[in-house]
Amino acid sequence: MTHLRPLPTVADDPTLADTLRRHPRAFTFDELVGLSSERKARTAIQRGEVIRILPNVYASAVHADSFAVRADAALLWAGPNAALSGIAALFMWGFVDNPPDQIELVIPHVERPYPPDWIRVRRLTYRPSTVRLANATVVGPDLAVIFGYGALPRHLRANAFFGAVRSRFVTPRGLRATLERVPRCLARKELVRRIDAAERGVESYLEEKGLRSVFNTKEFLRLKRQHRVRAAGESYRLDLYDAETMTAIELDGEAYHSDRVQRQCDLRRDANLASVGIQTVRLSYRDITERPEWCRALVRGVLEARKRR
Asked: What pLDDT shows up at residue 158?
């Protein structure tokens, strides 16, 4: 690596350790020298103030364990044709909450680096779309989902996928088109099923569960998914809506409807919908996942009662 990136502005007469503490990123040895001198760079390394993360890649000992620094180090080590991929890309796009321990990179197929255990390299025969996020080169959102989805633990996949769709950075159609151009990825069939569900209007794991395991019988085919209505000057998206009886069925996620503030919002929403004649039936996460037949019976009874009216 002989190219130099723009170096941070150095204050009057700081130590190299002080400068690097203020800049949580990776540096080549030449960049360390550019910030101080060769003697000072070697001294800082010997003292443990600056740590070698990869061959010819260094960082402040204070920040060396951070995801941001390790991701920057991986990209600097792999060269200008590399980009973050997999769960690392999902994290950069905000589709998962926690950064991965292992950082995945995509590189051209002709390159054959020998990464340490904490870096995974995916060699591609085609050039992926990339963007710059937080000073890092990252694959586009479609590829982030496609390469990261199967690498996630199974219990985290649905939230990551539907979070990506809700973000509007990706669309089901765009994901499907990109996936057709990707020859191999983990959990491909499962991902295709999720894309199918998203194309039918599903926006969360709970809605997917309702679609596949609860309201999947013939009697509920008439329910409209993700139906939007206006009431009391507000726009609301209804998980499921029966137009014949003007009934909304809401699937309350485990993490989103348990706090007091959210409960107040739900009560106001239900009252506003009632003002235009729409009755709301709320089903909890536990009911949907553990008592599907009970949920069907409850909704069936409400719809029949309102139909008689």
From this structure: 92
What does the alpha-carbon distance between residue 9 and residue 164 come to, in Å, rounded to a whole number?
37
pLDDT in tens, 194-245: 999 899 888 888 888 887 789 988 899 899 888 889 999 999 989 899 999 9
DSSP state of 12: S
Two tokens at 193? 């099923």
Q: Could you tell me if 144 and 90 are in contact, meaning their C-beta atoms sit under 8 angstroms apart?
A: yes
What confidence tier does 13 reach under pLDDT thresholds 50, 70, 90?
low
Provide the token pair at 54: 């990869």
Beta strand 136-139 with 130-133: parallel, antiparallel or unpaired? antiparallel
What does DSSP say about strands 130-133 and 224-231: parallel, antiparallel, or unpaired?
A: unpaired
Distances (CA, A) of 60 to 24, 93, 129, 136: 7, 26, 31, 18
Are 166 and 151 a contacting pair, CB within 8 Å? no
Coil vs helix vs strand at 195: helix
Amino acid in position 271: A
For 100-123, how does the pLDDT look when each residue is reduced to its tens digit (9 = 90+)?
999 999 999 999 999 999 999 999
Structure tokens of 255?
Answer: 């993490």
